[in-house]
Amino acid sequence: MTSANPFPEKPAEGSYSQWFIATTAVFITALITANIIAVKLISFAGWILPAAVIIFPVSYIVGDILTEVYGYRQARRVIWLGFCCNLIAVAAIWIGGTLPAAGFWDAQSAYDRILGYTPRLLAASFAAYLVGEFTNAYILAKMKIATGGRWLWTRTIGSTLVGQGLDSTVFITLAFAGTIPPSGIITAVATQWLVKSVYEALMTPFTYGIVNFLKRREGIDVYDIDTRFNPFNTQA
Q1: Which of 62, 85, 191, 208 is the most buried (most CB within 10 A)?
Q2: What CA–CA distance (Å, rounded) separates 181 from 21?
C-alpha cells in the first residue's frame, strides 16, 4: 500500500489487532512444530534433511511479514515471545520425560528418543534461532528504509539469505563441531541454507499477498527510521 506520507506513524503501543495476534500465533506454531519434528531425518532429492524443513522456513516468512507490516519493534517482541514459548514447551517435555511412568506403559524409550533433547542441541537451537531471526528482521527493516518501501522481494529474499545462512551455520557448528568432520559441517550448512532459501523465494507471491492484505486491513506501513535495533531493548 502506498501512502502519501512515506513514513506513516506507528500504531499505538500496546494495541494489538486480531490480525497481529493471528500472525504471531502462526509464527510461534511454526517454530515449536519445527523443533518437535526436527528429530526425523528425511531424504529429499538425494539430500538428508530434518523434517523441520517443511515448516521452519514459515517462521522466517512470517517474521518478514511482521517486520514489513508492523515494524522491527513489534517483530522483536514476537521473536522473544517465540523464544519463551519454545522454552516452556521444551521444559514441559523434559519434565514429562522425568516423571515416573505408569507400570503398564512401555514407551519411555520411544518418548526419550523422539522428544528428548541434549543440552548441546538445545543451546545450539536457541542460539541459532535468536541470531537468525534478529538478523533477518534487522536487514529487512533497514532495506525497507533504503528502498523507500519498494521491491519487497529484494527484502524478503535478501534478509532470508543472510538470516537463514547464519541460523544454519550457528546451529550445525555448535551442535556437531567435533563429532563430524569440517567438510560434513560445511555440506550440512550449505544444504539447509539452500533449501530454506529456495523455499522462501518460491513463497514470495504468498508473502506479497499477505503483506498487502494486512497493510490494507490494518491501515499501517511501518518504517523503522527512529528504531533502536538492540535486540534486548523491547521498548524502543
Answers
A1: 62
A2: 43
